[in-house]
């Protein structure tokens, strides 16, 4: 998976196509990510003795193939490439502008 928590992404498929947000959580084993403000669902929560039951809106995970990183320079969606910096550390770069994403 080429995305990390905190990356700014654009949704490219599904009911929220075109929306932008920040990655809140990654589910690596399922290849899914939770993006803030995207893919809201309503979950029914059962009440316990002290609180009443309610309907809560929350963000559900979407597949990682349905999001693309937002380029830091051009502000458009881009693919991710890998390169090494002058210290020999592996970094992620945006394919459109060749800028570092990290």
Structural overview:
It is built from no helices and ten strands. It has 102 residues and is mainly beta. The chain folds into two domains: 1-70, SH3 type barrels (Roll); 72-102. A six-stranded antiparallel sheet has the order 6-3-2-1-7-8, with no helix packed on it. Strands 4-5 form a two-stranded antiparallel sheet. A two-stranded antiparallel ribbon has the order 9-10. The protein is elongated. The chain has strands at 8-11, 20-27, 32-35, 40-45, 54-59, 62-63, 67-70, 77-78, 80-84, 90-94.
Count of extended strands:
10
First and last CA, distance: 15 Å
Query: Which class best fits the helix and strand makeup?
Result: mainly beta
Q: Report strand %.
A: over 45%
Succession of helices and strands:
EEEEEEEEEE
Tell me which CATH architecture of the largest domain applies here.
Roll
- Main sheet, how many strands, which sense, barrel? 6 strands, antiparallel
Q: Tell me, what's the shape?
A: elongated
Q: Number of helical segments?
A: 0
Range of helix content: under 10%
- Which parts are unreliable, with pLDDT below 50 for 5 consecutive residues or more? none
Domain tally: 2
């Amino acid at each position: 998976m080429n995305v990390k928590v905190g990356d700014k992404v654009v949704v490219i498929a599904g009911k929220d196509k075109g929306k932008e947000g920040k990655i809140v959580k990654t589910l690596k084993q399922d290849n899914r990510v939770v993006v803030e403000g995207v893919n809201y669902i309503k979950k029914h929560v059962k009440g316990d003795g002290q609180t009443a039951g309610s309907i809560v809106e929350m963000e559900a995970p979407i597949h990682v193939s349905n999001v693309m990183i937002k380029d830091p320079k051009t502000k458009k969606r881009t693919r991710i490439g890998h390169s090494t910096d002058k210290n020999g550390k592996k970094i992620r770069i945006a394919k459109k502008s060749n800028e570092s994403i990290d």
